[in-house]
Prior knowledge:
By secondary structure, this protein is α/β, with parallel strands linked by helices. The chain has helices at residues 52-59, 82-92, 108-118, 125-134, 150-162, 180-195, 208-211, 234-249, 255-260; strands at residues 8-19, 26-37, 41-45, 67-72, 75-76, 93-96, 168-172, 200-204, 216-221, 224-230. It has one domain (38-64, 82-255): P-loop containing nucleotide triphosphate hydrolases (Rossmann fold, 3-Layer(aba) Sandwich).
Amino acid sequence: MNPGNSGDAIRLTAVRKLYGKRDNQVVALEEVTTRFGRGTFTAIMGPSGSGKSTLLQCAAGLDQPTSGSVLLEEHELSELSETELTKLRRDRIGFVFQSFNLLPVLTVRQNVTLPLRLAGRKPDRDRVARILEQVGLAQRSNHRPAELSGGQQQRVAIARALISDPAVIFADEPTGALDTRTARDILGLLRHSSRAAGQTIVMVTHDPVAASYADRVLFLADGRLAGELHSPTAESVADRMTRLGAFADEGPRSQPVANRGGQR
Length: 264
Ligand SMILES: Nc1ncnc2c1ncn2[C@@H]1O[C@H](COP(=O)(O)OP(=O)(O)OP(=O)(O)O)[C@@H](O)[C@H]1O
Ligand SMILES: [Mg+2]
């Protein structure tokens, strides 16, 4: 139906990422080929060290693959200059880091509005207030990160990724520090961002319930894609994760089996 990529926000082709040299070399991603349709919500799951954060960082242009191609909104990232890449990231991408990456000297409000100010845009007061309200931090806008709990800091990082209304939002375990109820609110917000606002969401998570908010789950094992689930439920995800863990323990040769096993 679609010979081009106009329906895709992101397309990865044969993405490979090696870290380190020779004896210390780690293959973080191996031959990853996949696409993320515009306005879709995808969860990425897999054991610790399977390459999830690396995949997100390569897809967002924060890190460069060793080989392979990343197309983000029609831009081949490897062909962009550093300035073009910075501009693309600033204007089109929101990123929630696994480690939050908040600036300690800035208040909550200043952290959240930083992307706008870096882009030379004036933060709209009402919008800032609404986003802080949505993540439950309206009462904390003048606090600094050190005065916040881990979950509150995580929500500042989420608000900061949403503030510029980016076309693509990457979120690395955005609910890892949140209690069940707050996590549900944030996941609902992300789902709403894809369904109502047409934003493309790519979220790493270890939690099958969080993954069930997505339209699709991609599984990674040892840097390779190890299957996917559409319209996931917490049960189907947990089931797949259990088997993925078992297969991963048996070594790389068993992965193609994991790939085929029990598609819904
Ligand atoms: N900067 C780096 N230098 C060397 N090796 C790295 C670097 N970053 C990641 N790696 C290695 O690449 C592999 C994939 O790491 P990555 O952080 O992508 O895993 P992950 O799936 O996000 O894990 P987690 O669930 O623990 O966050 C790991 O083996 C890791 O040790
Ligand atoms: Mg990670």
